[in-house]
Design goal:
Number of strands: 5
Order of helices and strands: EHEHHEHHEHHEHH
Low-confidence stretches: none
Strand content: 5-15%
Helix content: 40-55%
Number of helices: 9
Radius of gyration: 17 Å
CATH topology: Rossmann fold
Strand order of the largest sheet: 2-3-1-4-5
CATH architecture: 3-Layer(aba) Sandwich
């Protein structure tokens, strides 16, 4: 089995978590060994980050992004790289691109953000979930609680940063349709990217 590292990215309310779960389910149905993971992680640093996001005030933007990177460094060494070495497919809900996009939206120098993330593994395939911006905000506003990153003007900057990304290993996904239709699109894109249409096209999604 060839190890693969797949990441879902996108602004808040865009559906990264749901589509991560759908793809993992489809991969497992096709007989693949898959590890599903997410950032911030459940480590001590990751839990601290989640708490900070719920508070009225946060550390400075650069120190906050360094915390995300500290969590990521532990995540890579203890979870992601061991799974890849075993030949598993790793599907991660958010990774380095979140730090670069969200940090830049906070006004942090993009080159600095890229440099502190340069040592982390580059995903083989990145899905950016990007429905129309208004849909993201509708989903955010329907949540019982919101964090420091979920304010509309900030999310607009995040959205535009994601929208501007150009990379051959990135696939944009409009998640404004039904969850199942979107999951089918993601599954087909996965198959096409890795050249596996013939073997796996019969797997039922959702």
């Amino acid at each position: 089995m060839t190890a693969k590292f797949i990441v879902f990215e996108g602004p808040d309310g865009s559906g990264t978590t749901r589509q991560t779960a759908f793809l993992v389910d489809s991969l497992r149905k096709s007989g693949k060994s898959v590890l599903m993971t997410a950032e911030p992680t459940e480590s001590k640093v990751g839990q601290d980050i989640r708490k900070m996001l719920q508070q009225d005030t946060m550390p400075t933007p650069d120190s906050m992004q360094l915390l995300f990177c500290a969590d990521r460094a532990n995540h890579v060494s203890t979870v992601i790289e061991p799974a890849l070495r075993k030949g598993q497919i790793v599907v991660c809900d958010r990774f380095s691109l979140s730090t670069i996009v969200y940090g830049a939206a906070q006004g942090i120098d993009k080159q600095w953000l890229e440099s502190i993330n340069a040592k982390f593994p580059k995903p083989d395939l990145t899905f950016i979930t990007l429905p129309p911006f208004d849909i993201c905000m509708e989903r955010i506003n329907s949540r019982k609680t919101q964090d420091q990153f979920e304010m509309e003007n900030f999310q607009r900057r995040v959205y535009e940063n994601y929208k501007s990304i150009e990379d051959p290993s990135v696939v944009f996904v409009d998640t404004s349709g039904s969850k199942q239709e979107t999951a089918h699109f993601v599954w087909r894109q996965y198959q096409e990217h890795f050249g596996q249409i013939s073997q796996e096209s019969e797997v039922q999604v959702g």
